[in-house]
Specification:
Elements (H helix, E strand, L loop, with lengths): L1 H15 L4 E2 L3 E7 L8 E4 L2 E6 L4 E8 L5 E7 L2 E2 L13 E3 L4 E4 L1 E3 L4 E9 L4 H4 L8 E8 L16 E3 L1 H7 L26 E10 L3 E3 L10 E9 H6 L29
Parallel strand pairs: 4-16, 13-15
Antiparallel strand pairs: 1-2, 2-5, 3-4, 5-9, 5-11, 6-7, 6-8, 6-12, 8-13, 10-11, 11-14, 12-16
Length: about 270
């Protein structure tokens, strides 16, 4: 009985402190811009969730786990972060070199800058401001492996991310097929009424982010892997039973500092 209790407790802690949504080909993390630390991922009902704070600026960290290039089509709130179009996997994306880790800082404005991501109330989100409010609250990446017989180009990963050259890639592809969408799927029914409004991702200040284009021929017409993270406020995730009520609020979504004060105060 004691072993069963220890096992259950250990499994719950492991679920609570997961920091990356890891697939076989790639992993996806949400990083707080303020602390540089990944937000905790909560596993519930076969989905992955992150507790977000209104006003918190963040970025996405993609990691290629293969010894080969991959293409990652990135969608925030069901919107392609490069083009601003409602996201589908067949769209353009970022090319990551072998074992490369790349931070996606915001909505792509041109080859030199992006508009920063930040969590906000849904009405202030980029999705709502472009008439797509129902898509808010989800982040996804669709991963494609590269066709083996590609021409030898850009074999070494550059310091800046590579942006897929869609014009060349499309001309070399033998056919196009209807792909599954990266739009937000229906969220599971809440176990309790939501305590706060839903959240979305805002269109923040411009920050520097350099890219260049490259050719990439997809090995398959559908993604080899899709990773999805949902986000909402801490209160809503607790109300929906995703975060256990017994989890201490003051350690979420960031860990407390080890040295928060100066001198010893009198007890209350």
């Amino acid at each position: 009985m004691l072993r069963a209790i220890i096992f259950t407790f250990s499994a719950w802690i492991f679920c609570a402190i997961s920091m990356a949504h890891a697939g076989e080909l790639a992993s996806l993390s949400i990083i707080s811009q303020q602390t540089g630390e990944p937000l905790k991922i909560w596993r519930h009902g076969g989905r992955n969730y992150v507790a977000a704070i209104v006003g918190q600026r963040y970025y996405l960290r993609l990691t290629n786990k293969l010894n080969e290039r991959v293409l990652s089509v990135v969608a925030v709130d069901g919107i392609n972060v490069i083009t601003g179009a409602t996201a589908t996997p067949e769209q353009t994306g970022y090319v990551l070199g072998a074992w490369q880790q790349q931070d996606i800082l915001g909505w792509r404005k041109d080859q030199h800058q992006v508009a920063a991501f930040y969590f906000t109330n849904v009405e202030d989100s980029y999705a709502a401001r472009t008439g797509r409010e129902n898509q808010a609250g989800v982040i996804g990446i669709a991963i494609y492996r590269e066709r083996a017989e590609r021409p030898e180009i850009a074999a070494i990963s550059p310091p800046a991310p590579l942006l897929e050259d869609r014009a060349k890639s499309a001309s070399e592809s033998p056919r196009r097929m209807v792909e599954p969408s990266l739009k937000s799927e229906a969220a599971p029914v809440a176990s309790m009424p939501l305590r706060e409004e839903r959240l979305g991702t805002g269109h923040g200040e411009r920050i520097a982010s350099q890219i260049r284009t490259t050719s990439f021929i997809r090995a398959t017409s559908t993604p080899n892997e899709v990773l999805t993270l949902y986000y909402d406020s801490y209160a809503n995730l607790v109300a929906r039973g995703i975060i256990p009520k017994t989890w201490p609020r003051n350690v979420d979504p960031q860990y407390p500092p080890a040295f928060p004060g100066t001198f010893v105060p009198d007890p209350a």
